[in-house]
Amino acid sequence: MSKKIRVGIIGSQFISHIHTLSLKRCAQAEVFAVASPTPGHARTFAAKHEIQHHFTDYKELLAAPEVDMVIVGAPNDVHCSITLDAAAAGKHIVVEKPLCLNLADANRMIEACRKAKVKLMYAEELCFAPKYVRLKQLLDSGALGSPTLLKQSEKHNGPHAPHFWDVNRSGGGVTMDMGCHAIEFFRWLLGRPTVKSVYAQLGTHVHNAKTEGDDNALILVEFANGVIGLAEESWTKLGGMDDRAEVHGSKGVAYADLLHGNAIETYSAEGYDYAVEKAGSTKGWTFTIFEEEWNYGFPQEMAHFVDCVQNDKPPLVSGEDGRAVLEVIFAAYESARTGRKVQLPFLTNAKKPHDLWKLKQ
Amino acid sequence: MSKKIRVGIIGSQFISHIHTLSLKRCAQAEVFAVASPTPGHARTFAAKHEIQHHFTDYKELLAAPEVDMVIVGAPNDVHCSITLDAAAAGKHIVVEKPLCLNLADANRMIEACRKAKVKLMYAEELCFAPKYVRLKQLLDSGALGSPTLLKQSEKHNGPHAPHFWDVNRSGGGVTMDMGCHAIEFFRWLLGRPTVKSVYAQLGTHVHNAKTEGDDNALILVEFANGVIGLAEESWTKLGGMDDRAEVHGSKGVAYADLLHGNAIETYSAEGYDYAVEKAGSTKGWTFTIFEEEWNYGFPQEMAHFVDCVQNDKPPLVSGEDGRAVLEVIFAAYESARTGRKVQLPFLTNAKKPHDLWKLKQ
Amino acid sequence: MSKKIRVGIIGSQFISHIHTLSLKRCAQAEVFAVASPTPGHARTFAAKHEIQHHFTDYKELLAAPEVDMVIVGAPNDVHCSITLDAAAAGKHIVVEKPLCLNLADANRMIEACRKAKVKLMYAEELCFAPKYVRLKQLLDSGALGSPTLLKQSEKHNGPHAPHFWDVNRSGGGVTMDMGCHAIEFFRWLLGRPTVKSVYAQLGTHVHNAKTEGDDNALILVEFANGVIGLAEESWTKLGGMDDRAEVHGSKGVAYADLLHGNAIETYSAEGYDYAVEKAGSTKGWTFTIFEEEWNYGFPQEMAHFVDCVQNDKPPLVSGEDGRAVLEVIFAAYESARTGRKVQLPFLTNAKKPHDLWKLKQ
Amino acid sequence: MSKKIRVGIIGSQFISHIHTLSLKRCAQAEVFAVASPTPGHARTFAAKHEIQHHFTDYKELLAAPEVDMVIVGAPNDVHCSITLDAAAAGKHIVVEKPLCLNLADANRMIEACRKAKVKLMYAEELCFAPKYVRLKQLLDSGALGSPTLLKQSEKHNGPHAPHFWDVNRSGGGVTMDMGCHAIEFFRWLLGRPTVKSVYAQLGTHVHNAKTEGDDNALILVEFANGVIGLAEESWTKLGGMDDRAEVHGSKGVAYADLLHGNAIETYSAEGYDYAVEKAGSTKGWTFTIFEEEWNYGFPQEMAHFVDCVQNDKPPLVSGEDGRAVLEVIFAAYESARTGRKVQLPFLTNAKKPHDLWKLKQ
């Protein structure tokens, strides 16, 4: 049996907990260290998850020779710099979505990893979510005929951490935060054909006081093969996270509901501990999810990358995929401003997607 | 008790059967006559529904002084001429959707009825579908807060009669045939605010051999109050008719499924008589609907117009509403060609919506 | 057109409102009078429903020659005496379920109506509920093969009026109040074969402080043809009324959910007017029903009996059916005491079903 | 890291494949050998799953000193003898449900394992099914108040292997085969209180030509704490496996559907590879399950026992639990014959459960 892969966690918030819990299920991995700049965060995180080492400066983590790979769960605006440093330190890298703030940074990250001969995975967990994996099998098997329309949506009532509301750190609103899931989901489901054009309708309907980013989005992705992807995203949907997909084809149709569909239908007069991410109250009727991380594919995703590192395999979702998603996001914001379908490839020097939309106001 | 309202049915196909069955449930109405140009159709229809009179020329029907009102269920391209004749004959008129082929015709119809002092109802049955009526009550009551996004979709595997495939008779494909439902549904649900812009993605994905009309459509209707309506229509969806709506608001969300949701979940090894409109086979799993017409609101719609005629009330859905829907449809086809959001009001001399899209090819 | 049937409502509580609303939808009926002994109740009821006449003594109502038929919605313990009086007055009669408290009374009621040549309908509305009517059609058509198991359940958190908790007035707990629905539903669905035996498991799990009646019941009805009916009833189920049925057969299976299934799935942060009978709070997730009475079949049931009276037809559900249900209920209580399957016919002189169970304690 | 646990598989049919696939997911286990008496079966099985050793005589497998534990997936009638041999050989043992054919054998098995100081697990996978584990957490947390009624059902159209139809080998029909799941599920969910009484309604409705065993069963388990468990089992249900549970309590209710609920709702005109266990055709509408074994809890169950062996922990489900289930099954068959509620403890010398029912005929 090969030696265990030692992992460094960079970040200590919501997604880093999920990454860590997922890695703990992977017999081939060992979570070795965690780094977070906010004083105390890394220590608390390490204590909670029984991780041996913790740092406030992620560079110290990168300096540890034991560390084979890192998972970057820090805010979007530091994805690029951390990745460049990690590549320079010779660590394999998983970058949480979205890849980074702009296309130039994306290019730099991909190039740095290539040169350093380290693996770079773009962390799109939906490509590992077991229900969606089965959905792709259905499509690939011909059960649904030729696809005509794909749909995917994620909806909840707003992000966990304050930096998401600040477009300078996040790069954009719900399109950047959750639209990225749908875009890569469509690409993966179809075997990654070329995107031909993008149209987007974005709005800030509810959270205007908190952000200038979009809190509701409809994004139409037109593929070269004629298939349309309809992404529907929201930061204003109450009642708990919603994550659904549909595949419409010439010979059939399939509906996959990741959370609500799988849940235990529960009525509790008193309420209880937890129903699902962002459920709000658990009194009355709720849809109780089970094994939430597993249903999203996080443990499977982490086990996949550990296997890639251990056995020198290419990751299922690459830095190039992350860059392609980002290009579609830029086109979406451009479209939202102009009211036009934007053709791809779409090259722009904009520092972040939101800038293209902001020109409007 | 006032005297019964005598009704003339113009048309003898799918929708005319539904209109007749619906009127038969209405104690205040009597179906007096039916007219259809195809030899034998009117006679067969009259026999089946026990209607006293039948004509091959609708003008004979209009000449009958007993007839108080007519229901126009003929193909789209003759809606206008029949309506003009019926108005001239002093009959109250229900016109099946869509109102007619172009805006000039719509103006003529509205004007003719106004001058003749006859009532004109645009037959959008979704405004009478009991589940959708309850949905509107929920929204109006504030249960969902301020609306942000409305969705409505109708999907099946293609129209009943051949003239729908011929854009010269139908005026357009699925956007014209079924998109019209969603557009009026949105307007009605919101209390008929101004439409600000329209964007549409149309395609002919499956039925290219049969039609040059669109068989799949996504239509984004932006209202002046910022609410977005997303209409999703298909003529390529197998497994039976699908009719759903959602209302997303700042304080809640509601999901209404008219057919699939209400159905009896059935497994039959042998199959049986009928599951739902266009279900295909009834072997294996199916979703058996009950009281299909009632669930769509047809009897309620007919009873409403009979009441309007009997008691001199304005119809809930007017000729002006039908015209407004048509304007949105023209804008949708224009948008599909140009890849741009089209602002309203949108004036055009095009003879039919499909013409604006056809310019593309 | 025949003259309208004039109806007298006896009772002014929950079910009498439903009966009245249902009759108002029936063009052939006119609600002529209401009677209720509690001072003021009949007057308020009459005002609310715009009924011309109201009485505190139902005998005055029976004395009105205009009244063609009465609907008895009074407490169970007066069903018999009112029916005897109404028959003596020559009125056609609908008796709300259960028919009465004991078999001797049932015999008297049936005999009295027979002699007086008035029609007697036992008001089992589930035989008119449109989804269940469709379910019966499926079974009758052979879609499901030979039936093996039928299931029906009604569950809510307890009755509307205090007299239900008093077994001396109600005759029994949830088995008497709601089990009666399932028993007649099974008989009707199967074409009323002989009941061979009954087994029941009854308990008072939650409402011991309020009643000595059963608040949860499982009743197994074995038919002569080998089919098993499983009735599941509860007065302790929170979250709104539940009304479901299943038919399992050798060639298929069908699941019909009358309320939850049909509902609009709603999330409301603020709550709203009404979700469904006994829903409790409407904040958070709820299942919003629409046209509740119609879905239960009440208007259809009333229209049916009005038609029976007007056109001299036999009611779909007779006094004999009500008596047969009562016999099964007696057997169920006997079984609950003895822990044995009770064979039918089951003759007993018990004054009410609960007495057979009470012997236990 | 402790050394891997080496596993011997005894059996080569349906359930042994599942056990093997589940063990392959467990990093701490190694499937070392398989034994099956039918010539060629073990070899084919070993080839398919890449297992090093295969035997036609399970005693040779038991003789291998490398084997730490065995999984007995052979027919019911040999569970006892294999277990006794395995215990004598010093192997830890998992016995597939039901534990064995009679109580005397159960006693022998438990005693043999006790004396040999080997662990004995009764393989009730539902106690590991993630949705049901979450359901138990809900109940334990007080979310539903005090339980009143538990329900669990498993339904499909009949067993995989011919020996199930032969009551001499299986011990009984669907009550033995699938009722055992519900019985242990109830015990586990409630923390294993004493069973007070059992009532059962059994029948052979469809498969009379194939078996004298019961093919439909309703079993009422009354616990000492007053909670009722309703088990509903069928070997005649078409359309794919059904596995559901409900918990009704004084403060709430929860509905958990293991398969149908979780599935992708699929329509395929052409059909596809696999929807769910025993689905029949995959044309038309189907409910496509994903990660079926995981959803049932098989990998979790196997990992649990491997952990028990490796770290000397007691199994969650013991031989005593398997015996308790068997006692309830005997009482159920006795009840089905007598039409009476049978009190527990229920001692019997019957050689197999079916014998008690057979006395009837």
Written account of the structure:
Helix content of chain A is 35%, strand content 24%. Chain A has helices at 14-24, 41-49, 58-63, 79-88, 103-116, 130-140, 167-170, 174-189, 292-296, 298-311, 319-338, 353-358; strands spanning 5-10, 29-35, 53-55, 69-72, 92-96, 120-123, 147-155, 195-203, 216-223, 228-234, 242-249, 252-257, 264-268, 284-288, 342-343. In chain A, strands 12-11-7-10-9-8-15 form a seven-stranded mixed beta sheet. Chain A is built from twelve helices and 15 strands. The radius of gyration of chain A is 20 Å and the shape is globular. In chain A, helix 4 (79-88) runs parallel beside helix 5. In chain A, strand 11 and strand 12 form a beta hairpin. Chain A is an alpha/beta fold. The N and C termini of chain A lie far apart (59 Å). Chains in contact: A-B, A-C, A-D, B-C, B-D, C-D. At the A-D interface, helix 6, strand 12 and strand 13 of A face helix 6, strand 12 and strand 13 of D. Strand 12 of chain B pairs antiparallel with strand 13 (264-268) of chain C, so a sheet runs across the interface.
